[in-house]
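Recall that a protein's primary structure is simply its ordered list of amino acids. Everything else, from secondary elements to tertiary packing, is in principle encoded there. The following example makes that idea concrete.
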Amino acid sequence: MAQQDDVFKKIVSHAKEYGFVFQSSEIYDGLSAVYDYGQNGVELKNNIKRYWWDAMTLLNENIVGIDSAIFMHPTIWKASGHVDAFNDPLIDNRDSKKRYRADVLIEEELAKMDDKVEKEVAKARKRFGDNFDEALFRETNPRVQEIIEKRNALHERFATALNDSNLEELRQIIIDQEIVCPISGTKNWTDVRQFNLMFKTEMGSTAEGAMNVYLRPETAQGIFVNYLNVQKTGRMRLPFGIAQIGKAFRNEIVARQFIFRMREFEQMEMQFFVRPGEELNWFAKWKETRLKWHKALGLGDHKYRYHDHDKLAHYANAATDIEFEMPFGFKEVEGIHSRTNFDLSQHEKYSGKNIKYFDPELNESYVPYVIETSIGVDHMFLSVLCSSYEEQKLEGGDTRVVLHLPAPLAPVKCAVMPLVRKDGLPEKAREIVNSLKFDFSTHYEEKDSIGKRYRRQDAIGTPYCITVDHQTLEDNTVTLRERDSMEQKRVAIDDLHKLIHENVSLNALLRKLG
């Protein structure tokens, strides 16, 4: 775990050094759990969003997009349940004065038990070699079975406490498991209490006439209150979906792990409206579809897993997370939820407006059920960054830091470099930049040795470097260097566009999805 922590610290440092992520308001000592995306970070982030948006709206004829406002009528949040139920269970350590989410402390304890099992399996695999039967070992080894039994008992107790909203039991679990504060190392815990996560502000020209409003804690409600507008103006028939990318805000008290948990973040959400009774079939379909979207990036299929929720939200009848293995463990990157007809029914009730859908095939009106797919853009960004980072030892003892970013997501697609800053090479390199820049994000690099320039581009994940040398002036060829293999080959300038496009276009990713 310590080694993984060191790797994560290096990734955070790398993100700042190479213009991916900065601490917000850094010159004023920063603002806790708020971050800014730098020149390379914003490009990577935009490419992730484009991949998601195109996969939703181009590949599905029955999914369209909207962009709803951040400010919404306050009654919306009463109808959705956020005013009364959007809380986290928090606990303080009296010695360190630090505050934690009680559920996260227990989840981390469960993760430690899982790690113990994996360590036992790893030791046995090393001991028995090719003759190792992992499945049999997990089923029969006394030590492994003991850990699994304790883990399952804790998990059942934890799930029951969550579903019953039993705050006293959550605290008692922490006491019984002898969970200590990571800072003070003590078990001097307060009671667990609920904390509402919404930011409140006022809208109006005078204090007397101001109305309390909230910064939206999720983007989904903007879709729900517009669902009938979209259905009617787009002449949509069920099933159909509405996609949206936008900012959301949560007053996270326990904000940590860099951009994984922030107070201002961005979501990519799609709400898919279906007939009542068909929701669980669509839930299963969207689980499969969304996992395929993630795996198409090539970050490693083994790094993904499903995690069913221990506690269902008040609106859901099924919920699963797609988790990705970060340096600090498996964490959620996307949630798929069957939200039933709760949201639309509530908005119909609180607004007094009829928002039922008329089904021409059944000749009846009803409130549709909803399947939600929801990604935190920042979670996705972090998973891509962490899985791409590598400190690589090269032949001859040299090293390099390289980001193996999926080429279509890379901030810069190619860098053009004159070997020297004379003899007409810079001018020729500029010609190539001008021919490529309309289709690809293209950098011009002439400072420092060619080796240092390669290293800089490796560090930001640029898939291709194009070197212009004296031979270029003779036969119109250049050296094309590939980031991951560092392989170099001579290619004609006229062939550059095709060679680069084949690997960096989003089309290549989308075609994997059908």
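The chain has three domains: 1-86+197-393, 88-193, 404-512. The longest strand covers residues 329-340.
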